[in-house]
């Protein structure tokens, strides 16, 4: 009887250990799968060169590679994102309409230099103008927020 009890305890312990290991592996797999989906869905929608962290949400993870020549092509309208660097003027205006439910920070910049920055509250519009730039310099727009669920905007660069 004591031998059967020991055997039953050992078998029960093994079943519990295998169940916990199996559940942990399933949870990790689902978590890894969620990350892969997030990376795929945000791979080409952006305006930010900085990867998202837990406190801020940015769209995209790299500086845009395409260039929009404002002098030749004129005003650039965007909605939700912009995949361009801008060039060929000495004076720019960046206008953004915050259509989301939380504040956003809009920055006109290039690596190592910020030309203009403004914070726009939810449901409001804002603009920045700057002229401290050579016409051959390429800059991009970075837009950040702390609330990933209500992150939407539109606007233009001219």
Q: What does this protein look like?
A:
- With 158 residues, the protein is an alpha+beta fold.
- The chain has 2 helices and 10 strands; from the N terminus they run αββαββββββββ.
- The strands form 3 sheets. The chain has a 4-stranded antiparallel beta sheet with strand order 1-9-6-7, with no helix packed on it. Strands 3-10-5-8 form a 4-stranded antiparallel beta sheet, with no helix packed on it.
- A hairpin with a 2-residue loop joins strand 6 and strand 7.
- The longest helix has 40 residues.
- The radius of gyration is 25 Å and the shape is elongated.
- The N and C termini lie far apart (87 Å).
- About 25% of the residues have low confidence.
**What's the overall average pLDDT, rounded?**
73
State the helicity in percent bands: 25-40%
Rg is: 25 Å
Oligomer: single chain
- SSE class: alpha+beta
How is the biggest beta sheet arranged? Answer: 4 strands, antiparallel
Number of helices: 2
Spans where pLDDT lies below 50 across 5 or more residues: 18-46, 48-58
The number of E-state strands comes to 10
Question: Into which percentage range does the β-strand content fall?
Answer: 25-35%
How far is the N terminus from the C terminus? 87 Å
Strand line-up in the sheet with most strands: 1-9-6-7
The global form is: elongated
């Amino acid at each position: 009887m004591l031998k059967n009890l020991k055997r039953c305890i050992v078998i029960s312990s093994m079943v519990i250990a295998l169940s916990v290991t199996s559940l942990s592996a399933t949870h990790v797999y689902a978590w890894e799968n969620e990350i892969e989906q997030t990376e795929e869905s945000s791979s080409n929608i952006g305006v930010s060169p900085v990867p998202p962290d837990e406190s801020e949400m940015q769209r995209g993870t790299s500086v845009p590679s395409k260039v929009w020549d404002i002098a030749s092509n004129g005003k650039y309208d965007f909605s939700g994102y912009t995949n361009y660097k801008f060039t060929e003027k000495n004076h720019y205006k960046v206008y953004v309409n915050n259509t989301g439910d939380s504040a956003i920070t809009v920055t006109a910049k290039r690596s190592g230099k910020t030309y203009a920055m403004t914070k726009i509250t939810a449901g409001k519009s804002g603009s920045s103008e700057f002229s401290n730039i050579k016409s051959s310099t390429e800059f991009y727009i970075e837009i950040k927020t702390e609330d990933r669920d209500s992150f939407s905007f539109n606007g233009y660069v001219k």
